[in-house]
């Protein structure tokens, strides 16, 4: 009876406190208990966190370069919007279809990828998806060479499958390697490298096309960089094989890994409401961030009446701040917290950026820098928050849904932006930027609400400083270990919440809307009268 009562008390606490294994393991008390935990964390992917810093350094450097070619290719396509429309003879709506071809396929695949990682782990899976990326990049370059819109859509879909999965896998792997310490810093570096790749793609695409006299060369360079990413992926895989060769896997670990292969889908309906609150914010902001990137170069050309090369240089400023700021923010949040405050600042700068670029003629660099600040502050705050409010066994799934919502929103907004621009006088961007301001305002209100709700339901976990956060997460981690040691699910004793069925239902509706819009406008290429 005593044991049952103890289990019941733990279950009740688990309903109101997030369960997680993260960088917040980093405290003295855990170090005292390492010997007790060792039998569970020995072998498999769980050995990554206990690896030497020589292995961790190689893993960090190579894993950070997994999506280098992917991000460069995506931004190069955006920077080349004007040449693409001219050479493929398409309008803005058709270009919206082309841009959303990457995101539409990733409305589903990141979830599957996240579930796969949670169930089995992933090493060679990253190599497989990087192969998809390079195939898609090759098809895109060939399509540009033969001026085929249909082939380019196919190429971007294949590219999109890989590009969506690689980021989810990258973030999950970094979480496994650095879950005991410095996870915020690792994620900050990951976002910095990603933004640097995007920055370079936006910066050099048009100059390369101009210098070579062939607009297709921007896509050939993307193909070459995708090959470099595969090389880094191979080095990473060999490093993991070497590490695993030095690790003795216990019988207990083998049994635990087999048990993990039974994924509990119903546990998604047990995710805390605050997780879905963050997903809604991500749905709105990621759509605006991504759609802005696809139009930024042409926006400068149309609104500020400049050349494509100069516009490319100006638009590249929109990627500048995250290159440095995300790593710094990772350190800041690791010590001082204030994740939601950082997210609120992101919303403010997004609204200011949209207003300046859409309705004034203040130097475009100013608006791009403001957008860049928003892009630096927003994603890292949300990604690290998800890592704290979900159990470690569901982080991959949670990040998969996060990425999927990103792509659902982007797919819808890319097409909506194309329709609005095609129906605006002189195809100006005033209507588009007004839409961005409205969405930014809605997001601001949602973020302000999140500050209040997390204070009551998470004991201010997302805002508090490192000392308080570590104490809370130590308590949470003890509960998770209690269940894990018995082979139980982290959400044992937690009943599915009725409102979660509504949240999942709304997500599915948005997913269907994204697919319908994509196929309607891919087929018709225009707006119904």
From TrEMBL:
InterPro entries referenced in this protein's UniProt entry, alphabetically: MFS (IPR011701), MFS_dom (IPR020846), MFS_trans_sf (IPR036259), MFSD1 (IPR052187)
Catalytic activity entry: L-lysyl-glycine(out) = L-lysyl-glycine(in); L-lysyl-L-alanine(out) = L-lysyl-L-alanine(in); L-alpha-aminoacyl-L-lysine(out) = L-alpha-aminoacyl-L-lysine(in); L-alanyl-L-lysine(out) = L-alanyl-L-lysine(in)
Entry keyword annotation includes Cytoplasm: no
Pfam families tied to this protein: MFS_1 (PF07690)
Membrane recorded as keyword: yes
Superkingdom of origin: Eukaryota
GO molecular function: transmembrane transporter activity
Keywords: Membrane, Transmembrane, Transmembrane helix
Mode of membrane association: Multi-pass membrane protein
Subunit composition and interactions: Homodimer. Interacts with lysosomal protein GLMP (via lumenal domain); the interaction starts while both proteins are still in the endoplasmic reticulum and is required for stabilization of MFSD1 in lysosomes but has no direct effect on its targeting to lysosomes or transporter activity.
The protein, known as: Lysosomal dipeptide transporter MFSD1
């Amino acid at each position: 009876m005593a044991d049952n009562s103890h289990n019941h008390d733990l279950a009740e606490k688990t309903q109101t406190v997030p369960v997680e294994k993260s960088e917040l393991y980093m405290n003295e008390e855990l170090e005292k208990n390492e010997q007790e935990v060792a039998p569970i964390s020995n072998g498999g992917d769980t050995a990554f966190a206990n690896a030497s810093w020589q292995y961790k350094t190689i893993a960090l450097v190579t894993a950070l370069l997994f999506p280098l070619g992917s991000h460069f290719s995506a931004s190069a396509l955006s920077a080349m919007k004007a040449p693409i429309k001219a050479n493929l003879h398409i309008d803005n709506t058709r270009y919206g279809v082309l841009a959303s071809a990457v995101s539409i396929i990733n409305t589903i695949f990141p979830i599957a990828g996240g579930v796969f990682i949670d169930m089995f782990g992933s090493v060679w899976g990253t190599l497989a998806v990087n192969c998809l990326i390079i195939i898609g990049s090759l098809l895109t370059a060939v399509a540009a060479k033969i001026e085929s819109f249909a082939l380019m859509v196919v190429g971007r879909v294949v590219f999109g499958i890989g590009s969506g999965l690689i980021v989810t896998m990258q973030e999950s792997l970094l979480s496994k390697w650095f879950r005991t310490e410095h996870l915020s810093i690792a994620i900050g570096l990951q976002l910095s490298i990603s933004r640097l790749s995007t920055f370079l793609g936006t910066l050099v695409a048009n100059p390369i096309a101009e210098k070579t006299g062939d607009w297709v060369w921007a896509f050939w360079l993307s193909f070459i960089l995708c090959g470099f990413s595969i090389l880094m992926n191979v080095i990473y895989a060999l490093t993991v094989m070497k590490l695993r060769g030095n690790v003795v896997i216990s019988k207990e670990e083998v049994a635990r890994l087999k048990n993990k292969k039974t994924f509990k889908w119903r546990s998604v309906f047990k995710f805390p409401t605050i997780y879905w609150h963050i997903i809604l914010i991500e749905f709105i902001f990621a759509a605006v961030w991504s759609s802005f990137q696809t139009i930024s170069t042409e926006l400068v050309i149309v609104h500020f009446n400049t050349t494509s090369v100069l516009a490319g240089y100006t638009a590249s400023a929109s990627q500048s701040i995250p290159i440095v700021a995300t790593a710094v923010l990772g350190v800041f949040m690791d010590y001082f917290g204030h994740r939601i405050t950082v997210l609120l600042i992101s919303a403010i700068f997004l609204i200011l950026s949209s207003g300046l670029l859409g309705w004034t003629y203040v130097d475009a660099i100013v608006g791009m820098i403001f957008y860049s600040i928003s892009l630096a502050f927003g994603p890292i705050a949300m990604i690290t928050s998800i890592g704290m409010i979900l159990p470690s066994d569901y982080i991959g799934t949670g990040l998969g849904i996060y990425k999927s919502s990103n792509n659902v929103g982007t797919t819808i907004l890319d097409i909506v932006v194309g329709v609005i621009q095609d129906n605006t006088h002189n195809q100006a961007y005033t209507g588009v930027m007004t839409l961005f301001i409205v969405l930014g305002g809605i997001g601001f209100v949602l973020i302000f609400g999140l500050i209040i709700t997390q204070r009551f339901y998470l004991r201010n976990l997302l805002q508090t400083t490192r000392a308080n956060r570590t104490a809370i997460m130590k308590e949470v981690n003890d509960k998770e270990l209690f269940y894990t040691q018995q082979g139980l699910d982290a959400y044992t004793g937690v009943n599915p919440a009725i409102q979660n069925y509504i949240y999942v239902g709304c997500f599915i509706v948005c997913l269907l809307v994204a697919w319908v819009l994509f196929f309607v406008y891919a087929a018709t290429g225009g707006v119904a009268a």
